[in-house]
Amino acid sequence: xxxxxxxxxxxxxxxxxxxxxxxxxxxxxxxxxxxxxxxxxxxxxxxxxxxxxxxxxxxxxxxxxxxxxxxxxxxxxxxxxxxxxxxxxxxxxxxxxxxxxxxxxxxxxxxxxxxxxxxxxxxxxxxxxxxxxxxxxxxxxxxxxxxxxxxxxxxxxxxxxxxxxxxxxxxxxxxxxxxxxxxxxxxxxxxxxxxxxxxxxxxxxxxxxxxxxxxxxxxxxxxxxxxxxxxxxxxxxxxxxxxxxxxxxxxxxxxxxxxxxxxxxxxxxxxxxxxxxxxxxxxxxxxxxxxxxxxxxxxxxxxxxxxxxxxxxxxxxxxxxxxxxx
Length: 326
Description:
CATH architecture of the largest domain: Alpha-Beta Complex
CATH topology of the largest domain: Fumarylacetoacetate hydrolase, domain 2
Helix content: 10-25%
Shape: globular
CATH class of the largest domain: Alpha Beta
Number of domains: 2
Structural class: alpha+beta
Strand content: 15-25%
Radius of gyration: 24 Å
Number of strands: 18
Order of helices and strands: HHEEEHEHEEEEEEEHEEEEHEEE
Distance between the termini: 81 Å
Number of helices: 6
């Protein structure tokens, strides 16, 4: 029935009009509630890993008993294509009990393969800026790391040739889940697939004493380990209240919290999207708290044989042994 016919047929029937309007309103409200429920259904709590020998990694997830479950019957790998809300929701719908338990103690690789780019934020913790004797930035200090620097969470860090001031930086790593351009801070976390632990390994002499930008001191092979887990964003109640720590040879060096960030995660994602397009799988190293070796008196730089452990609350921890140059 057309709208005009409905009006004519109900012109002198106010009760029917009221009922018709109520029905229409209820239908509209139901549609809104269903859309909201569908959106909420995409909320996904997963802890994803990649395991296996180099070049033969398989996708997996960590179950409630901290066992690795094999996902390889359902997907080939964990790549940027698997990081959208819809893709993660499909993974979450797989009954965990149906997935084989991985036996033994397999090698864990970086939890995402095919990372397109790495962006990092400098001096983003109040106490770290103070220990480095720099003023707090008024905008995020942005630099990049070469993707060839990526390595697994338990792979050794290789000193580059000519190294003199090798250092560690414990960091929360943001993993982008969908294309982000000009996003608002209010919506920014919707573009995040999840989080991981990272070590922004740095050669301070290359970084500060060789001219140019930070990237030279941040990009040697093995200078961007991350993992062991990719923890989806819905698994984290408050990304701005997570402990971040590091230790060297068993000595605690860094004990910070993401609440100490100068610029929070949502601000960083929104800010970066004003200057570049963020793509699925992009990594953002979000800064480090105080306690780096460069700021100690005297400075304590990493040497061959040193062992660095780094962790972020809820993300698992990493371990890297320092090896001499090849």
